[in-house]
Amino acid sequence: MVVGYRGLSLALLRAWPSSVRNMSTPAKHSAKLQDKVAIVTASTDGIGLAIARRLGEDGAHVVVSSRKQANVDSAVAELEGLGCSVLGLTCHVAKDQDRQNLISKTLEKFGSIDILVSNAAVNPTMGGVLDCPESVWDKIFEVNVKNALQLTQLVVPHMQKQGGGGAVVYISSIAGFQPMNMLGAYSVSKTALLGLTKAVAQQVAFDNIRVNCVAPGIVKTNFSSAITQHPAVYEKILESIPLGRVADPKELGGIVSFLCSSDASYITGETFVVAGGMLSRL
Question: Which of 257, 268, 280 is nearest to 173 (CA)?
């Protein structure tokens, strides 16, 4: 007899991600990104770190970054312990000097930039879009959209000088397709990334630079703890996920690595939803 996930207890569903970690990480990855240089922003924890790890395991030289040096040091130690080639830098993406330093130090260390994964995002408020103060709205759109564009503007010229062939991946959210009322402004900013993906992809396609987007569903991270750590909210969310569980961060690494590789050489301007079957139509 087959028992659906909704027939499982909440305790069992919470335990599920640990088993996913064991199943979703192969003992050996490919070398499909061998010697590529990848910058991943906000990559010392959660989704960003999982993506950086997978890119490194697939052969890339990975540049990890976040605002705090201690977090950078921890991520570098973890990735080096796995045998990855990694450079760690502090970077507040809203600061121009930090963005410039991220690019210059990457070039100084590795000589090129082949991949940009823009993962940095903030959500300093909870509530509907009409309740969002102007200052908070500006901050959300500055980090989640404007800074993603500014980093792309810095990276693309170097990809062009290398003869093209680069890859940019923006990390959006299922909320970009189906706004969450308590994440109103954040949801709209993630919808904006879907449009940014298509606009940038069209502009750089002639240079064989591909731009795609990944929209995760609910992922078990510190960022989503407001949802996953409240039983009533968590139960309600699970009802909207056909697979009956939230994602482990490692389940985002494979799709990003694919989009950065030659396996995706004819894919650009697209958004890939990784959300366990949650509704994702605008």
Answer: 280
Q: Supply 242's token pair.
A: 């056909």
Instruction: Using the structure block, give the residue that is written with the tokens 């958004």.
Output: 271
Catalytic residue among 5, 170, 186, 266: 186
User: 183 pairs with which residues across the strands?
Assistant: 127
Q: How far is CA 62 from the centre of its chain?
A: 14
Given a contact cutoff of 8 angstroms between Cβ atoms, the answer to whether 184 and 141 are in contact is: no
Look up residue 86 and give its DSSP letter: E
Under a CB-based contact definition with an 8 Å cutoff, are residues 169 and 267 in contact?
A: no
Task: Tell me if the pTM is above 0.85.
Answer: yes
Average pLDDT, the chain: 89
The string of DSSP letters for 42-78 reads: S-SSHHHHHHHHHHHHTT-EEEEEES-HHHHHHHHHH
234 is catalytic: no
**Sheet harboring 210-216: ordered strands across?**
85-90, 61-66, 37-40, 115-118, 167-171, 210-216, 271-274
C-alpha–C-alpha distance, residues 1 and 200, integer Å: 49
Kindly report the number of other CB atoms within 10 A of residue 233's CB atom: 13
Contact 267, 231 (CB under 8 A): no
- Tokens of residue 263, six digits: 């396996």
Q: Please compute, for residue 142, the number of CA atoms within 13 A of its CA located in the half-sphere on the CB side.
A: 12
Phi-psi region of 244 (alpha: psi -120 to 50; beta: other; left: phi over 0): left
- Say if residues 221 and 46 touch (Cβ distance below 8 Å): yes
Q: What mean pLDDT do residues 5-12 have?
A: 39
pLDDT digits (tens, 9 = 90+) for 139-181: 999 999 999 999 999 999 999 999 878 999 999 999 999 998 8
Q: What is the spatial distance between Cα 216 and Cα 206, in angstroms, rounded to a whole number?
A: 29
